[in-house]
Amino acid sequence: MPPVPRADRFTFQDLLVEATADIGSRPGRLFMTIVGTVLGIGALVATVGFAQTAAHQIALQFDAASSTQVVVKPQQAQTRGGSAATSRLPWDSVERVERLVGVEAAALTAELALGSDTVTAVPVNDPSAPATAPPTLLAATPELLDVLGATLISGRMYDSGHEARADRVVVLGERAAERLGINRVGGQPAIFIGDVPYSVIGIYNDLQARSDLLDAVVMPLSTARHDRALAAPSDLQVRIQPGTGPQVAEQAPLALRPDDPSGLDVSAPRAGSSLGQNVQADVNVVFLILGGIVLLAGALGIANVTMLNVIERIPEIGLRRALGASGRQIAGQFVIESIVIGLLGGLIGSAVAVLAVVGVSVAQQWTPVVDPWIAVAGAALGAVVGLIAGGFPARRAARIEPVTALRGGR
Length: 410
Fold this sequence. Notes:
Helix 1 (about 10-20) packs across helix 11 (about 325-365), helix 2 (about 25-65) crosses helix 11 (about 325-365) and helix 9 (about 275-310) packs antiparallel against helix 11. A hairpin with a 2-residue loop joins strand 9 and strand 10. This protein is about 50% helix and about 15% strand. The chain has 13 helices and 13 strands.
């Protein structure tokens, strides 16, 4: 009867204990071994964290700088005498469009023809005065300055009361006010359009959307209907939330002219910014390359230290082989040791990277954005780096013969 082979009593738990017993015995070497992995994993996790945080900030900056203005105009049809509008904007366009999601404010405007009239600060027509280009005459609802992001430097904007009464009041753009010799409205100055006086109640500047209106004289829409026989508004200026341009462009014609939406022309910004996405992609590539280089250095450090451990522990390997340890068990011991070192470096690197992202973001008053799974993946990647780095030294240790090992490797 053949002998029954004895079961191997060297369990995985024993292997784990043997592999980790030597790690803490040399703290200086352990520190030098894991520092490369800490830097590599930390660089990668910090790269992704900073990239996500930077992407958020880039998106905010591009949203702030991107156009948030939508302009709705009647389409123009070519005729023999020039061009004519195929449709009209309703007088209650502001109320209609402000019901749409994404719309923050809206204002109706209409450019008025001066004809033979002039715009002056005095009612006297001086033939000897040099001719100057007249300012633009515009009619608008009271929401205009809010929609275009203007700043009042003197006085106030006319309100719904002025609009309802068709009061003869105007606000001036900064350049128009300088041309007319008006720098403040405390003395209740007036200008004359033709021979009709209008009280100047405000001066504005810092137009973000339409700097050409700094040369404009703006009156209430109802006043233009009464005094200038305005037949219909020429366009609707809409301020929207970033990213809602396509949605507002699709819904605005239906809200304004459900009977003829195709008669309105809508100019709206696109939803996304390809420039912001390209900048983010370039930042990611640069940081990932740097992190990969540092991680490679960490892997080489683990491989070198593991190989040094194999050389120093050749007599110990020979003794274990002589006592019955198999080559697989010897290889497993060094592989697990490398994995534990890599995992430890990955955990420390991920923690340091997350703290760095949060710290820098708080210092810069940013919103830190770190995916929790990135930190977990960083720790796991450290273990993988340890596995790969310890593979070759472990294979070499497994191939050492007991007799050669007991002779000190000679």
